[in-house]
Write a structure and sequence with these properties.
The structure is a homodimer.
Chain A lengths: L1 H9 L3 H12 L4 H10 L6 E6 L6 H14 L4 E8 L11 H5 L8 E8 L5 H15 L4 E6 L4 H8 L3 E6 L6 H6 L8 E4 L7 H19 L6 E3 L8 H17 L2 H26 L2 H15 L5 H10 L2
Helix pairs in contact in A: 1-2, 1-3, 2-6, 4-10, 6-7
């Protein structure tokens, strides 16, 4: 059954790809087997991460970029990571709204993934969803993440090219730096650049990036102005993505970057498995028994954990 | 040596508290022993989390709130979580700038912690730093987190009362919801409320919070307007914190919340220990050996991890 699903994914069948991603998202026991089967067919797609503060226009840029990629004959997969809301029980601005533009195109696959529960879980699932899209023959995969925190940054960093989208209103350059975005961008976009403050943000960004460049890199990090709703600057953005891709490939940096990401992925797999094996029914009962005493400061959580390990 | 440090911390000696937090931050082998010794003296401090998008004025609110707490005779600890920057090699807007107002006050302790490396690591360290401040006799501990991502939300949620600070410019209410902030706030603050758009944000927030309340809670979540630089609304904010504290204590919800957090903390401790034990020198060598083959798609990372576990 999983083999037949794998074959359908390799054949680029949309419903099979959707089912595969659902298996991954629901942490189905079959997901591992599926990913093993598909793995040798991955590594061909180029991954673009798009991140930035809420309201910067990331979805609009993703859509505009998808159009250009399609015009260039490229097949596109999109993973949009949205935090879970108790109101909808799932992803906000879900697939339906997003599909309007390209939903009828067979060579575009769009999927929203919601953040549910555990730290780190989402970046694992997002990566695995990318592997499925990759195996299905997509040439480019765009991972769009809402928010600017550590998990989101981790997701953005699994990409080959990471684009940070800012708007004049999203705070000044120092705020951007504080949010950890300066470190991860391969390309910076000032969207809604017809608004006040865009010049000043551009100057400040370039100054800080120049500082960074002289310290760390042999490549100038571009700052591009766009008005995504009017499709302005998107061609330029596309050109810079392709240039960055060529830069990484020529210098052997793409392989290096992907190897580092593989090591991270292996660590996450190991941790998940360790955790799963450790928490036997017996240990869970023990935790239930002792939590009251820990809460009352009779035992410290550190001593309790030591105790759990003594039995392993 | 650690015992003497623990005693000095219990005596509220500032330099000892600073050293204790450094042990935690550097993951010193002594940190565990110290935390074990201090644990029975924790649980007395009340934890306030302050979070929100960059530029919302969280630091200003923290400072203003600290003043009121001091006027009420309360001892205050502050943990400010800042992302690491390669420019400074440490926390931005570090301790020195922040100390200006209350640096000479012996009953205020301020510490910036930087986000270094591993996912989840920071919330563990922030929690442990809070335990040290708690044991040192602080009545209130404020944890201030920059950013709006999953790790930051996790940190904010370890607090007893979580305050979400927004500004009219930080995007509309839907953006706030997308960033995952609607779910975690016990109190919402619209700072810089003299600016345009503050009314509209307030109305939208109240509408959404009302929806949430009818579904999930027996308590109305307040939305407070402040102008922190002018000290406006801060007294009201303080009153609402105290009211929320009383609400939690009266209904037994504080104990319940803290127990849930303890369980999370235990999980993190277990995971750290498992990871540390698993990666023997031998396994690390194996990873080095195989990464090339995994990178060339000869072996999948999933099969490789299975192989690692066979030997355990």
């Amino acid at each position: 059954m999983i083999e037949s699903l794998a074959n359908k994914i390799l054949n680029s069948e949309k419903t099979a790809v959707a089912r595969g991603i659902s298996l991954v998202e629901n942490e189905s026991t079959n997901a591992g087997e599926l990913l093993k089967m598909l793995y040798k067919n991955t590594g061909k797609a180029y991954l673009i991460g798009i991140t930035g503060p809420p309201g910067a226009g990331k979805s609009t840029i993703t859509n505009a970029l998808t159009k250009i990629l399609r015009q260039n004959g490229k097949k596109v997969g999109i993973i949009a990571v949205d935090p879970t809301s108790p109101f909808t029980g799932g992803a906000l601005l879900g697939d339906r709204i997003r599909m309007q533009d390209s939903g009828t195109d067979d060579d575009v696959f769009i999927r929203s993934m919601a953040t549910r529960g555990s730290l780190g879980g989402l970046s694992k699932k997002a990566k695995e969803a990318c592997d499925i899209l990759d195996a299905s023959g997509k040439d480019f995969i765009i991972i769009e993440t809402v928010g600017v925190g550590q998990s989101e940054l981790d997701i953005a960093q699994t990409a080959d090219t990471t684009i940070v989208v800012l708007v004049p209103e999203s705070g000044d350059a120092v705020q951007t730096m504080k949010a950890g975005l300066m470190e991860i961008g391969d390309i910076f976009v000032i969207n809604k650049s017809d608004r006040e403050g865009s010049e000043a943000l551009g100057v400040a960004l370039r100054t800080m990036l120049h500082l960074k460049m002289t310290k760390q890199s042999d490549r100038e990090i571009p700052v591009i102005k766009t008005i995504a709703t009017g499709n302005k600057g998107i061609n330029e953005l596309y050109d810079f993505i392709i240039r960055h891709k060529e830069y990484l490939e020529k210098k052997g940096k793409l392989e290096q970057k992907r190897k580092a990401n593989l090591i991270k992925q292996i660590n996450v797999l190991v941790n998940n498995k360790l955790e799963h094996k450790f928490w036997t029914a017996e240990k869970k009962v023990k935790l239930d028994d002792k939590i009251q005493k820990i809460s009352e400061r009779e035992i410290s959580p550190y001593d309790f954990v030591d105790e759990l390990f003594l039995e392993t």
